[in-house]
Design goal:
By secondary structure, the protein is of the alpha+beta class. It has 2 domains: 4-124 and 249-287, Clavaminate synthase-like (Double-stranded beta-helix), CATH 3.60.130.10; 127-244, Clavaminate synthase-like (Double-stranded beta-helix, 4-Layer Sandwich), CATH 3.60.130. It has 8 helices and 18 strands. Strands 1, 2, 3, 4, 5, 7, 16 and 18 form an 8-stranded mixed beta sheet that branches. The longest helix is centred in the last third of the chain and has 14 residues, at 234-247. The chain is globular and about 55 Å long. The relative contact order is 0.26. Bound molecules: fe (ii) ion. Fe (ii) ion binds at residues 93, 95, 268.
Length: 289
């Protein structure tokens, strides 16, 4: 890759642009190799707009998915959204890992960084697992966790497409391991998803504590328990949070930055902020590898 420097002093591999290259000039194969090896890439100095993020992501993606909570920014590019609304701290999570519909890649690009705070945080789930106490490891190897969610019709229509029917819901949800569901009279759907908190990474087949346990535990609208419905003790959650606090890494945004995150291995979150001008755009996709 010509005129690109690599900085290996951080766990997020940073690819700097020194020569006015467009992000779209970067060689796909080389990028893909780095992505699979490092799991998180930060492209800096390319002045990436959200449209370029989409064009770049298309080179690597078989399809895009839409998150139910996020505002769409461009009616012609309906998969590009702003990140989670609000200005609060966001706990570590993998995207949509409370369901079987976990996308492979989370893409972020920065329009305007917050004047203060608002950094995106990330955690290498492989490292979190390695650093976890033997007691917690045993707990999460021996016991699965269960996520409960309710989707009003408007939410699953956003996920499946506005013309989607109950038959489409059934077709999507039937036969998925760990998933059971109930369709209510008002067409809302309850799903119950049972999975391990410890997963194998998609590239490298390593154990990773890469899940949405902490964020769902802290989400007043969500329910997460052990598989049998028994509560996850607060002491366990606190130990995980302490470990996460110790291992958090930071993306200190500059305008035009693009980040590509392996959602099978890395968790992400954010620091709180007060600057209403902050604009971080996001895309979710499945990799075309
Ligand atoms: Fe997220």
């Amino acid at each position: 890759m010509k005129n690109i420097n690599f900085d290996t002093s951080t766990n997020a591999q940073i690819i700097y642009n020194n020569q006015g290259n467009s992000i779209l000039d970067l060689p796909r194969q080389e990028n893909l190799k780095m992505f699979k090896s490092f799991g998180i890439l930060l492209f800096r100095g390319f002045g990436v707009t959200y449209k370029e993020m989409k064009a770049f992501a298309e080179k690597f993606s078989s399809r895009f998915v839409l998150d139910k909570d996020r505002p769409i920014v461009d009616p012609n590019n309906r998969y590009i959204t702003l990140v989670d609304p609000g200005m609060h701290y966001v706990s570590p999570h993998c995207e949509n890992a409370n369901s079987p519909f976990r996308p492979d890649v989370v893409w972020f690009c920065c329009g305007v960084p917050a004047a203060q705070g608002g950094e995106t945080l990330f955690w290498d789930g492989v490292r979190v697992w390695e650093e976890m106490s033997g007691e917690l490891k045993n707990l999460f190897i021996s016991r699965k966790i269960r996520f409960l969610q309710k989707f009003p019709a408007v939410d699953w229509k956003r996920f499946l497409g506005t013309g989607a029917s109950i038959a489409d819901v059934k077709k999507t949800l039937d036969g998925i391991e760990g998933l059971s569901y109930r369709i209510n009279e008002d067409q809302s759907v309850y799903i119950e998803y049972i999975c391990s908190a410890v997963v194998k990474t998609k590239y490298g087949n390593q154990y990773a504590f890469a899940n949405s346990l902490i964020s769902e535990y802290k989400n007043p609208k969500a329910v997460v328990t052990f598989e049998d419905g028994s509560p996850i003790p607060l002491g366990v959650i606190n130990q995980i949070q302490e470990l996460m606090n110790r291992l958090a890494e930071v993306i200190d945004w500059e305008s035009g930055d693009l980040v590509m995150i392996d959602n099978s291995r890395f968790l992400h979150g954010r620091r709180s902020f007060t600057d209403t001008r902050r604009r971080i755009f996001s895309l979710l996709s499945y990799l075309n590898d």
